[in-house]
From TrEMBL:
<feature type="transmembrane region" description="Helical">
    <location>
        <begin position="72"/>
        <end position="93"/>
    </location>
</feature>
<dbReference type="Pfam" id="PF09924">
    <property type="entry name" value="LPG_synthase_C"/>
</dbReference>
<dbReference type="InterPro" id="IPR024320">
    <property type="entry name" value="LPG_synthase_C"/>
</dbReference>
<dbReference type="GO" id="GO:0016755">
    <property type="term" value="F:aminoacyltransferase activity"/>
</dbReference>
<feature type="transmembrane region" description="Helical">
    <location>
        <begin position="49"/>
        <end position="66"/>
    </location>
</feature>
<feature type="transmembrane region" description="Helical">
    <location>
        <begin position="26"/>
        <end position="44"/>
    </location>
</feature>
<keyword id="KW-1003">Cell membrane</keyword>
<keyword id="KW-0812">Transmembrane</keyword>
<dbReference type="InterPro" id="IPR051211">
    <property type="entry name" value="PG_lysyltransferase"/>
</dbReference>
<keyword id="KW-0472">Membrane</keyword>
<protein>
    <recommendedName>
        <fullName>Phosphatidylglycerol lysyltransferase C-terminal domain-containing protein</fullName>
    </recommendedName>
</protein>
<keyword id="KW-1133">Transmembrane helix</keyword>
<feature type="transmembrane region" description="Helical">
    <location>
        <begin position="417"/>
        <end position="435"/>
    </location>
</feature>
<feature type="domain" description="Phosphatidylglycerol lysyltransferase C-terminal">
    <location>
        <begin position="129"/>
        <end position="418"/>
    </location>
</feature>
<dbReference type="GO" id="GO:0005886">
    <property type="term" value="C:plasma membrane"/>
</dbReference>
<dbReference type="GO" id="GO:0055091">
    <property type="term" value="P:phospholipid homeostasis"/>
</dbReference>
């Protein structure tokens, strides 16, 4: 029988209840003293258990110095690990027993995690609508993200936790006058949970909000000035040619709201998604992407759909609104294998034209990661190494191909940064890459109709 949601929530809260707070000088002194005693015991060599106990105490002391609280679930798991270790010793598996007992310290001080709260979506959407000039604001709605709201609820931070880090996604959303207090409160909350703060995708204008972290540039926004956009001039020649090829192929486009898709069109778009070269059964991404394509879960989502001259859907782009309709951001483009060349450019250009009629001010096409690496014809040793490393990930995201598409629009904008303590680059690299690229199961929409032939 399925457990009622209320009982499940209460059970989870009981497991996550903090039983020991370690964020105090006293706790740190106790941790240091315990480690000193265990080390002295090992030096004297009075017991074969000395090294095992030292390892467990060292892991506990490390957790104390990081400020990690102990929850009921941690305490139960650590006790179970110790019990398993003693059981292994009784069965003459001494090495296994030692490893289990030593690792109980790691289990006890394992970092807590923040759970996403999908029920907060209406509050987050209201703040996204109140945020202007931020191309990544709509991505704060992603279902896997947690949210920290200001005291008055007029601003919020979207983040996820992993391995003791709270990774903030982009800039805060909502009333920017409340951002300094919001960030101070968020940092205080993270301190009590033993989380170290990292920011992925901070904009240039918000760097001053995080003075204790070091900025490392990771790329630029690509934002179209919608009222001023045209394709006149030699520099737009490649873009005009790509768009013209689709006109010659008989491609037409239409714009629909994702939450208002008819069953027949939903079936056609789902067929495109499943036949796309991208991972159709899995999805990835954290800071600059939504999830739940075609499910209608999120408000403010528009799709622009391309059909060939036979009426068959060949591709579609998914856009998210922000700033009370003044900003539009591309989420993910989809097209069939073998779709006509230039279909992405056509969809982008037609979307810009349609948004111009609606009074939209800015349209963000995507994020151009490390553009300087691709534009430098004489790369030095460091940039050459970075260039080679980037192409190792082409199966996940072809950054150079994306850049070649984006540069046709000549709209490179402000830089974005990852903000982090430089002393922790290596573990953070693992955390950030896992957040962005580990696959997760895609939840496909329920289709009651059938794709048109």
């Amino acid at each position: 029988m399925t457990e009622p949601p209320l009982q499940e929530a209460l059970r989870l809260r009981a497991r996550e209840r903090v039983v020991v707070h370690v964020d105090s000088p006293t706790a740190r002194w106790v941790g240091a003293l315990a480690f000193l005693i265990a080390a002295s015991w090992l030096a004297v060599g009075k017991s074969p258990w000395s090294l095992t106990i030292l390892a467990a105490v060292a892991l506990i002391a490390r957790g104390i110095f990081l400020g990690r609280p102990v929850t009921a679930a941690h305490a139960i798991a650590a006790a179970a690990t110790v019990f398993a270790g003693f059981a292994a010793h009784l069965l003459a598996f001494d090495v296994t027993g030692d490893v289990l007992i030593a690792s109980s310290g790691l289990v006890l001080m394992w970092p807590t995690t923040a759970r996403p709260e999908p029920g907060q979506l209406p509050r987050v959407w209201a703040l996204v609508k109140a945020t202007s000039g931020d191309p990544v604001a709509p991505f704060a709605m992603q279902m896997l993200k947690s949210h920290f709201f200001s005291t008055d609820g007029t601003a919020a931070i979207a983040y996820r936790t992993r391995l003791g880090y709270a990774v903030v996604s982009g800039d805060p959303i909502g009333d920017e006058d409340g951002f300094p207090d919001l960030i101070a409160e968020f940092a205080g909350m993270c301190h009590t949970r033993g989380w170290r703060v990292v920011v992925l995708g901070c904009s240039e204008r918000r760097l001053g909000l995080w003075p204790d972290l070091r900025p490392v540039p990771i790329g630029r926004d690509v934002v179209i000035d919608v009222p001023a956009f045209d394709m006149v001039g030699r520099r737009f020649r490649n873009l005009r040619q790509a768009v013209q090829r689709t006109h010659n192929a008989g491609i037409t486009t239409e714009i629909v709201a994702e939450q208002e898709l008819a069953d027949g069109l939903l079936a056609e778009l789902t067929d495109v998604l499943l036949s796309s070269a991208k991972g159709s059964r899995t999805e990835r991404g954290f800071s600059m992407i939504l999830d739940g394509a075609l499910t209608g879960h999120y408000p403010g989502i528009l799709l622009i759909v391309a059909r060939d001259n036979a009426g068959r859907v060949q591709g579609f782009h998914r856009y998210a609104l922000a700033g009370d309709g003044g900003d539009v951001t591309l989420d993910v483009p989809w097209h069939r294998r073998g779709a006509p060349n230039g279909i992405d450019e056509r969809l982008s250009v037609d979307m810009i034209a349609a948004m111009k009629e609606l009074g939209v001010q800015r349209l963000s096409l995507a994020f151009a990661a490390f553009p300087e690496i691709f534009t430098d014809p004489e790369r030095g040793a460091l940039r050459g190494l970075c260039y080679a490393a980037i192409h190792l990930g082409d199966s996940l995201i072809a950054l150079e191909s994306l850049y070649r598409y984006l540069r046709k629009f000549h709209a490179l904008g402000d830089r974005r940064y990852v903000l982090l303590p430089l002393s922790q680059v290596l573990p953070l690299l693992m955390v950030l890459l896992s957040l962005e690229f580990l696959p997760r199961r895609r939840h496909l929409p329920t289709v009651t109709g059938s794709a048109s032939e």
